Amino acid sequence: SVDKPPGSKLGSGYPKSALGVERLLQERAMAVTKETVVEAYHRIKAHVHRTRVFTCDALNSRASEAAGAPKQLFMKAEHEQKVGAFKIRGAINAVSLSKADFVVTQSSGNHAQAIAQACKVLSKTAIIVMPEDSPAVKINAVRDTYGAEVKLCKPTQEAREAMSAEVVAGIRAEKGEEKAEEIHPNQDLRVINGQGTIGLELLEQQPDIDAVICSIGGGGLISGVATYLKAVKPEVKVIGAEPERARSAYMSKQEGKLVKNPPNTPIVTIADSVKSSLGANSYPIVEKLVDDVFIVTEDEIEDATRFVMERAKQVIEPGCGVAVAVATSKAFYEKYPDVKNVAIVMCGGNIDLDNLPWVKRRHMDDR
Fold first, then answer.
1. What are the tens digits of pLDDT across the range 94-109?
2. What mean pLDDT do residues 193-206 have?
3. Catalytic residue among 87, 138, 253, 275
């Protein structure tokens, strides 16, 4: 049975029978609302960190200089989260609600680690499809630290999705239809609800924010955060940040329809965690609730990442540097001059110390 989550608005209509509760949870798993985010929060909070919000004078000065006016940045430290990224939130929520014994997913690293850890904690078996160019630190963590099986594939979205489907089909054929399930890294609504808990914590910790900036890959993070924030404090600007070389969300907002990154084409960017395209579930939320999306160059991503590591003394990955680059850019403040208190979701801190992002970039650009 499931207790009524504190803070939810289920009211007197909340089912009293176990069967009624289960049916309601199944219905809620197919929606993303403020209430489902609250429920996810109470479901996952025993398994995740309530990450801190911190400030940095050097970053404030950089943002203020870009804006030509005083600005204050508030960093939500999801790079200090379990598995080194926010992804554990959505993973715990989704795996908790899954009835399958075998959980399959495809990810370049952070969601892979999160699903592996969630399955370890919740006594399920994880099989992870990862692109063969994933950082070694992430592959090793998934396989060696969290004990999941890793299957490597070609570094395209199509190859990842095809292998994941193949793995699920194989397990179902051998073990039974209900024994295996794929949990998509950013389109599964249970995952999106889990990621939205960042917005819930952020407003409790820093209620005076004017804007929140999130890096975007497949859009699961920003979809969950935007859903909660726009329901509770609709005046807050929700801003997406993307690499120039992987601009699905930016193009989708520009054209008013879902635009994916070029098919069967490896995306060459140091921001390996945000190379995915928006999908069928994240796009409508981004279109409706995300105020704007900015794109940044490889130079800007590298510069922002290095600046945070050198001046704020925080280990972040380039996917996180994408959001920092927007939050310290002249373009953002020219368009939104009235925002003063800006939150950044520091989405991850998993980097390969034997192959630092700027060294990796030199090799990529030399090809």
1. 999 999 999 999 987 7
2. 98
3. 87
pLDDT at 10: 35
Predicted TM-score of the model (pTM):
0.88
CA distances to 44, 118, 177, 269, 315 from 94, in Å: 10, 9, 18, 29, 28
Q: Which of 6-20, 196-210, 213-227 shows the lowest mean pLDDT across its residues? A: 6-20
Longest CA pairwise span in the chain (Å): 63
Active site annotation includes 134: no
Is residue 108 part of the annotated active site? The answer reads yes
Q: How many CA atoms are closer than 13 Å to the CA of 287, on its beta-carbon side?
A: 16
| Tally of CA atoms within 13 A in the half-sphere of 356 that contains its CB | 8
Q: Are 98 and 198 in contact (CB under 8 A)?
A: no
Question: What is the dihedral sign for C-alpha 98, 101, 19, 48?
Answer: negative
pLDDT reported for residue 133: 85
348 vs 108: CA distance, rounded Å: 13
Radius of gyration of the chain (CA): 20
What's residue 23's pLDDT?
55
Q: Which one of the listed residues 96, 108, 215, 277 is annotated catalytic?
A: 108
> CA–CA separation, 272 vs 108, rounded Å?
7
* CA angle in degrees (0–180, nearest 5) for 133-219-273: 20
